[in-house]
Design a protein that fits this description.
11 helices
Length: 403
């Protein structure tokens, strides 16, 4: 009997975002049409965003603060385009990861304790998805509500748009203003959805990998407690050896799963962690040193907080996967293997235990293009680099003012 496909709120939300940004692999003709439409309007939003910010940058040569604002916007858009292009090229591998998880993890027959661990992973995944959607949405709302507050008390001929248009069209007149305002707002949210899309599924899968490692630890610590423990030592050793082999096969499945994620997301993570430090540095400059106005400063504050939260979730999910994969060593060593007889099964069990501990000493991880594993240490390193860049900018501008 074929098992029912596993679905939960976090997985549905992640696949929905990827589907409507054109990344997820289509499974039928209707989804293929929807995919082409999604790619089309996503591309239009990205191209329009780059065009508007580039033209505005060209016409604002005397306003450094506004130019930095445009540089941040353009960099975020270009970074998102590159990451989505990479995942678009690897959409088949993403589909294979989802199928692999459905077959080996999400539809397993768990006992009550294992089911509790799995439900905790689903709970954390749900809260993660809610956080990922709420924080960027709050940041993006700043782009939309800023011109609304700025327009209070102004004439209709002098109304502001979220992004200034250097065209001869009557964009300040009704209904052109309302149409352009709506179009720019929709583009902002499409770009924002594309910004979180490349990482949301990866973090979700990382959380489930953490859960699988914890389930494996539970199995390795508890397969010693079987019925024949006190009655027949040889049979007990044989049963333990058979249970350990099942744990080893499960460990191998999880390792393959982590390697599949590494092959898909390694490059996109490298792009993100190398650029986000510069973006947060520019945010800090605009918040603390420049004078962009209260409304614009709120945009930079929300953007900085959103980038910080995004980076924290990204590195935390990778870090805990590394940590739980390393904990397999302690789970294996904490068993009752030392009291087993030294028969053939006992020696085979000890040898297998030694190999699984040696393998677990090399933790499963997601790397930044193979240069370094992504962990909480990466998060603190990026923060340190951000403050270093900020100090360098502050000293540079202070020196220029003194001269």
């Amino acid at each position: 009997m074929q098992k029912k496909e596993y679905r939960d709120f976090s997985l549905i939300s992640a696949t929905y975002v990827m589907k409507y940004t054109g990344i997820l692999l289509a499974t039928n003709a209707a989804e293929e049409r929807q995919k082409k439409i999604s790619i089309l309007y996503t591309a239009i939003a990205f191209i329009y965003g780059v065009y508007v910010n580039t033209v505005d940058y060209y016409h604002t040569s005397n306003d450094l603060s506004h130019r930095i604002f445009l540089i941040i916007n353009t960099t975020c858009i270009v970074m998102t385009m590159i990451k989505m292009f990479i995942l678009q090229a690897r959409r088949v591998q993403i589909a294979k990861i989802l199928v692999y998880a459905q077959q080996h993890f999400w539809n397993n027959d768990y006992n009550p304790q294992e089911r509790h661990i799995f439900k905790m992973c689903v709970k954390y995944s749900t809260w993660f998805v809610i956080f990922v959607f709420s924080v960027p949405s709050t940041s993006l709302t700043g782009y939309v509500i800023t011109p609304i507050f700025e327009n209070l008390g102004r004439n209709k001929s002098d109304r502001m748009l979220p992004f200034k248009m250097w065209v001869d069209w009557p964009v300040n007149e009704t209904p052109y203003y309302e149409l352009m305002f709506t179009f720019q707002s929709v583009c902002v949210y499409i770009i924002g959805m594309g910004y979180v899309c490349p990482d949301i599924l990866m973090c979700l899968l990382n959380v489930h990998a953490v859960g699988q490692f914890r389930i494996l630890q539970y199995r390795m610590l508890n397969f010693w407690n079987i019925v024949c423990k006190d009655s027949d030592p040889e049979k007990y050793t044989e049963e333990c050896y058979m249970a350990l082999k099942k744990c080893i096969r499960q460990h191998q499945l999880i390792i393959v799963f982590c390697n599949m994620m590494e092959s898909v997301y390694s490059t996109t993570i490298f792009i993100h962690v190398t650029i986000v430090s510069v973006l947060m540095c520019l945010d800090w400059y605009e918040i603390l040193l420049a004078n962009p106005g209260n409304a614009m400063r709120l945009i930079f504050i929300f953007h900085m907080l959103g980038s910080l939260g995004h980076l924290c979730i990204l590195t935390c999910s990778c870090h805990y996967m590394m940590e739980e994969s390393s904990n397999i060593v302690r789970a294996a060593y904490g068993g009752s293997w030392s009291s087993l007889p030294m028969n053939q099964s006992g020696r085979s069990l000890r040898t297998a235990m030694m190999f699984i501990m040696i393998r677990a000493m090399k933790p499963c991880c997601i790397t930044a293009a193979g240069f370094f594993p992504v962990s909480l240490e990466t998060f603190t390193t990026i923060l340190s680099s951000t403050f270093s860049y900020f100090t360098l900018m502050r000293n540079s501008f202070t020196k220029d003012e003194d001269e």
